[in-house]
Amino acid sequence: QVQLVESGGGLVQPGGSLRLSCAASGIIFSSLSVGWFRRAPGKQRELVASITNSGGSNYKDSVKGRFTISRDYRKNQVYLQMNRLKPEDTAVYYCWTYSRENYWGQGTQVTVSS
């Protein structure tokens, strides 16, 4: 059974940092592309960052230069380092991958507020 479990969310002040983790079981991340999505209140889910099996990455324009996606092949985990956070980054963040079907984590709340 495939499971994606996110962690690392929380409440942070504007300008602060958080590191999200996505741990996978039942599936090998190393051969797959993995993405981080987010859904803010009243908005549609959007892709924030993605990383290919070879390590290539892509970012939503509004997070470029602030967020970094990375992966640890040995630990079978993917990370999202978020720096210089802004209130508009507040959302539930989800880990995603695809292997014959879509797999999603349960989400982790990120709140950026003073």
Task: Give descriptors for this structure.
114 residues, mainly beta, seven-stranded mixed beta sheet, 0% helix, globular
Describe, in plain words, how this protein is organized in 3D.
The protein has 114 residues and is mainly β. The protein has no helices and 11 strands. The strands form 2 sheets. Strands 2, 4, 5, 6, 9, 10 and 11 form a 7-stranded mixed beta sheet that branches. Strands 1-3-8-7 form a 4-stranded antiparallel beta sheet, with no helix packed on it.
Briefly summarize what is shown.
The chain is mostly beta strands and 114 residues long. The chain contains no helices and eleven strands.
Q: What class would the helix/strand composition place it in?
A: mainly beta
How big is the Rg? 13 Å
Q: What percentage of the residues does DSSP assign to strands (E)?
A: over 45%
Specify the number of helices: 0
How many angstroms does the end-to-end distance come to? 40 Å
Q: What is the element layout, followed by pairings?
A:
Elements: E1 3-7, E2 10-12, E3 18-25, E4 34-39, E5 46-51, E6 57-59, E7 67-72, E8 77-82, E9 91-98, E10 102-104, E11 108-112
Parallel strand pairs: 2-11
Antiparallel strand pairs: 1-3, 3-8, 4-5, 4-9, 5-6, 7-8, 9-10, 9-11
